[in-house]
Design brief:
Layout: H1 9-42, H2 46-73
Helix pairs in contact: 1-2
Amino acid sequence: MSDAKQRPPELLVDERWDKAVDLTLRRFVYSGAAGSLAALLLFRSPSTRLATVAFSAGAGLGSAYSDAARLFEGKPSMSSSRPAVESQPVPSKEEA
């Protein structure tokens, strides 16, 4: 975003909130749908099905909360593309 430096800080906060709300809604709906599908396929009791859906929706909300917190702190999220391990040269025996 080349125009991000030209925007006032109020608009950047609004953009972060938009991203956080969008992320929260998507993860809640998708994890709830996946949990309800799994509950229908795996369990017969209504209480067990409800618990499965509630657990999966809560997992989606928790995941969205942690990524939204990183978004507001300015840290990159875990889902962003970056190398998992930084490569460092291994010292040889003569250098050590």
